[in-house]
């Protein structure tokens, strides 16, 4: 990155952080509650979720709808949570300048990671679960990598103030998005910056809050404060297409009138890569066809504080905005938006379960399919895919 590009990014990010601070304090914001909130995070099986509130977090069983245990130990607000993809281990990052690693079986503290002097904004585990990458508010360095087995700090890097980071599906690349609307791609092992996109204007509406990879790693999807969805070519970092995530969509707006409603809370690709999903603060859930850009379906739920797509994008877990005042972490809502036999069949094919379930599931076959999914082993079908397929099948049966 050239010195000119670095200065441009610094100016844009600084301005965005100033505006962000004003909005969170209530200036120019017509609705209550903070603009950002840690998303509920699914484990690799698609059954358990971790939810953070203030300085503690709870693990919730989505099947039994109950809190399994509570993680207590941080001295300040938790900004980010992450579940290890290969082990039952949880990481939480706090404004108290620490990252804590917890046992996902019983909630016991494994270790506390230190070596930095700022609040961490976001976390991501490496694909093999051996390393944890965190991004904080420091100017330099602002990317840290730990060996989680030993707790040792492996390396530090100069990146940016990132609102979200995500490894691709092979672990070879790390995508990172900034409050200023920049998008960076790093080498997944060395964390050397490979490419970057820097916006040419200071535009609060394009403040990127979330990023996700397509299953084949060829594309990225991002969502912004102003309700803007971008699909990117992951190799060139050129935008392919854009969508409006909700009716509060405000393109090219320096100040967004109602960021808690327009903000995109989470984005995802369908398992087959043919469609993309987004969920917004106003409760709008939309799906678009990637190939022709058409809106495929829209679902409306209550305004929400935070939300997250399940690993195979079959379900959404969310907490309504009201919970910010009442603090009922156990009242998480989980829905299957727009369940259909077509969606069920496409997901089954994408995760290799079509041979086990059958190539054409009918309404009459749903009870038998549900029974089969409940007894399938992890060797037969990825557990997170089975969980989403089961949820779709049950939703279809309940609708009949």
Task: Considering the chains and any ligands shown, give keywords for the structure.
single chain; 400 residues; alpha+beta; Methylamine Dehydrogenase, Chain H; 4-stranded antiparallel sheet; 7 helices; 27 strands; 37% strand
Account of the protein in words:
The longest helix has 22 residues, at 3-24. The protein has seven helices and 27 strands. The chain is globular. Strand 11 and strand 12 (152-157) form a beta hairpin. With 400 residues, it is α+β, with helices and mostly antiparallel strands. It has two domains: 3-338, 7 Propeller (Methylamine Dehydrogenase, Chain H); 342-399. Helix 6 runs antiparallel to helix 7. The strands form seven sheets. It has a four-stranded antiparallel beta sheet, with no helix packed on it. It has a four-stranded antiparallel beta sheet with strand order 5-6-7-8, with no helix packed on it. A four-stranded antiparallel beta sheet has the order 9-10-11-12, with no helix packed on it.
Question: What's a concise summary of this model?
Answer:
The protein is built from seven helices and 27 strands. Helix 6 runs antiparallel to helix 7 (383-399). The chain has helices spanning 3-24, 259-262, 323-326, 341-350, 354-357, 366-375, 383-399; strands spanning 41-42, 48-53, 56-61, 66-72, 78-83, 89-94, 99-103, 109-113, 120-125, 131-136, 143-147, 152-157, 164-167, 173-177, 183-187, 193-197, 208-213, 219-224, 228-233, 239-244, 264-269, 275-280, 284-289, 295-300, 304-309, 316-320, 333-335.
């Amino acid at each position: 990155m050239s010195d000119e590009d670095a200065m441009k990014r610094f100016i844009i990010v600084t301005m965005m952080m100033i505006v962000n601070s004003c909005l969170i304090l209530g200036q120019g914001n017509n609705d209550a509650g903070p603009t950002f909130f840690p998303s509920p995070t699914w484990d690799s099986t698609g059954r358990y979720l971790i939810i953070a509130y203030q300085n503690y977090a709870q693990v919730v069983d989505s099947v039994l709808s109950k809190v399994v245990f509570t993680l207590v130990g941080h001295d300040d607000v938790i900004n980010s949570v992450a579940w290890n993809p290969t082990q039952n281990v949880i990481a939480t990052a706090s404004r108290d300048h620490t990252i804590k690693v917890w046992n996902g079986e019983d909630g016991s503290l494994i270790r506390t990671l230190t070596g930095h002097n700022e609040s961490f904004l976001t976390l991501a585990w490496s694909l093999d679960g051996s390393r944890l990458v965190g991004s904080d508010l420091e100017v330099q360095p602002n990317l840290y990598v730990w060996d989680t087995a030993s707790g040792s700090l492996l390396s530090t890097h100069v990146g940016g103030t990132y609102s979200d980071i995500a490894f691709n599906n092979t672990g070879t690349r790390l995508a990172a998005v900034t409050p200023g609307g920049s998008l960076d791609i790093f080498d997944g092992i060395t964390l050397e910056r490979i490419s970057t996109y820097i916006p040419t204007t200071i535009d609060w509406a394009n403040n990127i809050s979330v990023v996700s990879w397509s299953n084949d790693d060829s594309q990225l999807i991002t969502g912004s404060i102003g309700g803007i969805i971008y699909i990117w070519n992951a190799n060139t970092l050129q935008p392919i297409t854009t969508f409006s995530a909700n009716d509060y969509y405000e393109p090219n707006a320096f100040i967004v009138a109602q960021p808690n409603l327009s903000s995109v809370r989470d984005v995802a690709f369908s398992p087959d890569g043919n469609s993309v999903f987004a969920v917004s603060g106003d409760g709008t859930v939309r799906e678009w066809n990637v190939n022709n850009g058409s809106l495929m379906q829209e679902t409306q739920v209550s305004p929400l504080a935070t939300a997250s797509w399940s690993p195979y994008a079959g379900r959404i877990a969310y907490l309504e905005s009201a919970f910010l005042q009442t603090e009922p972490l156990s009242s998480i809502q989980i829905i299957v938006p727009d369940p259909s036999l077509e969606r069920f069949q496409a997901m089954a094919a994408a995760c290799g379960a079509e041979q086990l379930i059958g190539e054409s599931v009918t309404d009459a076959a749903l009870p038998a399919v549900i029974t089969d999914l409940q007894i399938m082993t992890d060797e037969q079908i990825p557990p997170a895919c089975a969980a989403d397929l089961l949820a779709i099948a049950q939703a279809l049966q309940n609708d009949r």
